[in-house]
Structure to design on (141 residues):
């Protein structure tokens, strides 16, 4: 990802915001709408584009535009800063590829230890039974 190229391809639009601001809210366009064209971006190589299109599938429009809004602050400048930071955080998460898990072999000592524990548990259970004197007497005769 080439951050400078991506920054140059971002389109900002200021819109009138709802919410806090009193009479100021009716006069000033403080809400910022960030628009980014993922498919036609020159800041990503083809594999990165495919990954973004796959991971951001639910957040893209039919034209593969990524749209993000911010109207939390009263200042347009602050909202622009916030929306840009969020945009790059989302891109960073979308481009992250988790490592494949390597399956590990269970050590032989662990297997032996488990079998010995099972054997000891079974022996403990059998020792709790009442002795069967009839079978003992049959064996003696």
């Amino acid at each position: 990802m080439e951050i400078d190229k991506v920054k140059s391809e971002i389109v900002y639009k200021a819109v009138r915001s709802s919410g806090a601001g009193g009479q100021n809210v009716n006069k000033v366009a403080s809400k910022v709408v960030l628009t980014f064209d993922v498919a036609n971006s020159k800041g990503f190589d083809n594999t990165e584009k495919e990954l973004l299109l796959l991971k951001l599938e639910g957040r893209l429009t039919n034209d593969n535009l990524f749209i993000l809004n911010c109207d939390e602050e009263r200042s347009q400048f602050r909202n622009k800063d916030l929306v840009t930071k969020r945009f790059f955080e989302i891109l960073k998460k979308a481009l992250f590829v988790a490592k494949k898990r390597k399956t590990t072999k269970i050590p032989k000592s662990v297997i032996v230890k488990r079998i010995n524990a099972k054997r000891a548990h079974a022996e403990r259970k059998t020792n709790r039974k009442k002795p069967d004197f009839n079978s003992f007497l049959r064996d003696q005769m």
Summary: The first helix runs from residue 3 to 9. The two ends are 88 Å apart (CA to CA).
